[in-house]
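Entry 14. Two folds queued back to back today. First construct below, sequence then structure tokens.
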Amino acid sequence: MNVNKFDLICDTIDNGVVLIDSDLKVYFWNSWLESRTKITSSDIMGKNLDSFFPELNEKKLKRKINTSLKLNSPTFYNTKIDKFLINIELGKVTDKVFENMQQAVTITPYNKDENLAILYIYDNTMLRETNHKLEYANEELELLLNATMESIILFHDDKFINCNELALELFNYKSIKNLIGKDIYYFINKTYNLKSISNHKKPVEILITPHNANSFPALIKIKDTTINDKNFKILTVIDISELKAKDKLISEQSKMAAMGEMIGNIAHQWRQPLSTISTAASGIKFQKELNILTDNMFSEAIDGIVRNAKHLSQTIEDFKEFIKGDKKKVLFNVKTNINKNLSILEGMIKNESIKVVVNIPEYIEIMSYPNELTQAFLNIINNAKDALVQNKHKDDLRLIIIDVKSENKSVTIKVTDNAGGIQKKIIHNIFEPYFTTKHKNQGTGLGLYMTHQLVNKNMHGKISAKNTNFTYDNTNYYGASFKITLPI
């Protein structure tokens, strides 16, 4: 057979070309195959292809060639991923995905009478590598999406296109198909401004109502992005129902602990007035029995009883205000608030021989929550009291200094003691829930945590703690200093 013209044409093609019969005998082998297989045309022509490539699927190739010749039409020899018609190694490529050339093969009838067909072998390694990498990247992305703690939802032009498994569970759906094409406002109430949420650097807390389920509080964040001139939104959602419930529980536990402290303080407060009332009443009775009670003595004793009864009544009123815990923001005087708090603690302070120095201007007022400040202040003072009792002998000076200043549209309240300070290794943990250095029967570890929550979250202020050296009455001291900063 004369193949000179055929040879000339096929050697200019950038693909493999094999002229072969139905018994797999080779009649032409172009230069593209010579360079890649290191098998010369003279070596392989007139011989069977499978003798050079024993791993060749002989039955499949023969069947495909016969089908092409019978139908007088091209057909395809499909190879699976990481498979090939003939084994052509790719050589030493460091980032290669496959060891062998990935091939697409077309079989075209050439001469039906002589049972000849042409195999066109195309190198589609790069295409398969790209597809393989894309599939791997998609699997990796899906794995990452489903490994997060957030529900992640993807929108194109504000229409749903995809989400992770957690989002399906959160919004009470079993399949992504049921969500395809739904508007973003299906997931977020229309009362919320999407643009405003997108502009927030930090997550925004909203209320979400999922499909056929109860509403729940959530933190959400929306990221706008453009890919290939297409607009996408990525919505991340975290259900904070459990966190809210936990915070409420901790708040209640803290309030109960604070109430326990308060009742103890009331006991200290009441001890002296009750003793005074009892003494006055006994004195009147004794003087009456001895017939020596004068009108002046009677009036003086009654006035003392009334005065001390009013003090007891005011203590109860202060306690009732604390228990009631109004959540209304009001304008109040800081000095009045702190003095009222100190009056509640007066009995405890005297009983533990603690000297309290107060430096508060008269005029400072803030728009905030007085009961929240009361609870935060009482927690800090009680903490200082415990440190002083633990670290200072009763005969030593036990000192608490309260400084209040107004500056830069904010008020700072500093409470400093001389109890020796907080250990460096734990000072960064003191605002964590259930963290305490006291014996389990003495502390819950909630006081300073709730103080931090009250100041930072409820009152939108800041609280910090540090150890400091200071001078009082020409003597140097060292202790802890808590600083509360509140907006005016």
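Second construct, same run, same settings:
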Amino acid sequence: MVAFVGHFGYLQIGCRLVQTESPKDTKVDGEQMTGPLIKTYKIIIVREAGPDPVTGEVLGYAEEHITVDATSRQAAYELAQMLDTLKFRGQVRRTIIDGEEHFDERY
């Protein structure tokens, strides 16, 4: 269960674990799953320091720690991008999932 309080109110996202008849026959993102379909990922979103290209305001280095439950690293990445509260205006955004930098697989 993830609870998030932001500028627009309170958002609560719930996940329910679904058991299959044969977990050995289940594949997620092409990988054989032998345990639960949902895994907990620890994510760090990093904003590198840099100027705003329009106003010139300098935004310093910042990071945000998020924990999400998802079916894959890519799904965790997408959830983290929606849940983070850091302000980005042209700065480099890095996403680290379970200690390893992750790049969006869609591009």
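Quick look at the second one. The CA atoms of residues 37 and 82 lie 21 Å apart. The helical segments are 73-83.
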